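Continuing from yesterday's entry. The apo prediction looked reasonable, so today I'm repeating it with zinc ion included to see how the binding region is handled. Same sequence as before; SMILES copied from the compound registry.
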Amino acid sequence: MRVNQRHIRSDGLCKICCCEGESIIHAIFLCSKVRGIWDFSPFAELLGDAPSVSFSERLLWFHLKVNHDDFLLFVSLAWAAWAYRNSIVFEEPWQSREVGVLGFVKLVHDYSEHMKAVSCVSNRAGGVSRGSWVLPDAGVVRINTDAAVFEGWGVGLATVIRDCHGVILDVIVRRLQAQMQVAMAEALAARMGVYLARRLGWDRGGA
Ligand SMILES: [Zn+2]
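Holo prediction written out below.
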């Protein structure tokens, strides 16, 4: 994604704040115009821990951290924040940010309900895969891994390890600047998960 196509100044400063560095993360989360969307969202606290290197890494991290419905909400808010900021950049600001944001959330929610109704198979876009959320038995941990291949950006790998109560023991997110098939990325993510579990002292994991 080229930043200068996304209405961020070529001198590296945000066109709206004029004081912060350029990045997609800035445009969607930190810009003065969109911050309020997140401050009053259920993600306000989690965002403090989220990776800030790139939007892709942050997306992947949330994908592992929150359940399916919350992830959809997160994506809806990100989309709404982006659209709202663009409306200001193009000097056609939405009349009400809150009403606009709700519209995006509803749109994504309705779409998701529609997809559930028309298909029993959960088909995930963008070549992203994800494990299930079943808790492991007592005495073992569950390793969930996730991989995503983004053309021109590389590969994102993420792993989360939970104990039998569902408590997150560790999360790791890595970006590889390489191109590969989704299956290979998934295999690498799984290997990273096993490595992380071992490092935490576990030699048995829930599959
Ligand atoms: Zn800004």
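Comparison notes:
- The beta strands are 129-130, 141-150, 154-162, 168-176, 205-206.
- Residues 127-206 form one domain.
Will overlay with the apo model tomorrow.
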